[in-house]
Amino acid sequence: MREETDTHRLNDLKTRDTVVKKLADRGATLKDIAVIVYDLQAKYIDNLTVEMCLEHVEKVVMKREVQNAVLTGMELDRLAEEGHIEEPLRSMLLGDNGLYGIDEVLALAIVNVYGSIGFTNFGYVDKIKPGIIKSIDDAGKEEGRCNTFLDDIVGAIASAAASSVAHRYANK
Ligand code: MG
User: For residue range 120-164, what is the model confidence (pLDDT) as tens digits?
Assistant: First the structure.
């Protein structure tokens, strides 16, 4: 049993590294995400730092359901770019069709891990597109580029980490 747990932990760590690299390759480092978390929570928590936020972002990307959602969404973006997705889905993904909505639904699997504050934060982040999310959204509008899932994934990781920060430090 112990051995099995260790193997699971090792696999999660390996997947964590893959997830972090894929995000960074597409322009979103964990530090960028931590900056969004800081902006969301600094007004509620005294002496909060980006480094403290980064610890919570790290915690979020260690969760298996988060890793699975990130890998799935980013893969769909990539397949759409490379022309491996058939119509009518391909145009919906490449055009980031506002009525598609499955990008937000997938992101909810990430937000879900830290309870209801995460949902509120996600709605807010989706609307104002702070920091790196705006750059990701803009880059996705370039010809042949698809960031339809990525912007929601990054927003959801930030929202989940923000609610983890809130649970940890609020009410002091
Ligand atoms: Mg999207």
Answer: 899 999 999 999 999 999 999 999 999 999 999 999 999 999 999
Cα-to-chain-centroid distance, residue 109: 10
Tokens of 46: 């005294």
Task: Tell how far the Cα of 100 is from the centroid of ligand 1, in angstroms.
Answer: 9
Q: How far apart are the first and last CA of the chain?
A: 39
Superfamily (CATH H level) for 2-169: PgpA-like (1.10.3760.10)
Ion ligand 1: protein residues whose beta carbon lies under 5 Å: 103, 148, 151-152
- How many residues comprise the chain? 172
Q: Is residue 106 scored above 70 in pLDDT? A: yes
The pair of three-digit structure tokens given for residue 165, joined into one six-digit string: 């920060």
Backbone φ, ψ for residue 29 (5° rounding):
-85, 160
- Compute, in angstroms, the gap from residue 104 CA to the centroid of ligand 1: 6
Q: What is the pLDDT of residues 16-42, one digit of tens each?
A: 999 999 999 999 999 999 999 999 999
Q: Measured between alpha carbons, how far is 69 from 164 in angstroms, rounded to an integer?
A: 18
